[in-house]
Design goal:
The chain contains six helices and no strands. It is mostly helical.
Length: 110
């Protein structure tokens, strides 16, 4: 919801947020697929997410939750996390971009 409160939210910033969230989800799933230890998966995945955020030059604390989410999801939903992240971020961030671009805020005058 922080994105909606910003005065400007461009497609470029939404794209960076999309890459960060989907990338973090994918990192979590890939690391946990190859390592069975939850602790070792977290120790490897979280620094990788940090590097991803540094490469994108953004601060997005929510991205750190995705690798951990991969650890607690039920087995039948585990591999769908990146796809779900794609669908959710496309919908929510796309909606924010459209709202910011095409709908101006209503100003109350006396």
């Amino acid at each position: 919801m922080k994105s909606y409160k910003k005065p400007e939210y461009s497609l470029k910033m939404a794209s960076k947020h999309f890459l960060a969230l989907v990338g973090a989800a994918s990192i979590g799933v890939l690391v946990h697929t190859f390592l069975s230890s939850w602790l070792l998966s977290a120790i490897i995945a979280l620094p990788l997410v940090f590097v991803l955020l540094q490469l994108l030059r953004i601060k997005l604390p929510a991205a750190f939750a995705f690798p951990l989410l991969a650890l607690v999801l039920p087995e039948n939903m585990f591999h769908m996390l990146p796809v779900t992240a794609i669908l959710a971020t496309t919908f929510f961030l796309g909606t924010i971009v459209i709202l910011k671009k095409y709908f101006s805020p209503i100003k109350v005058t006396e």
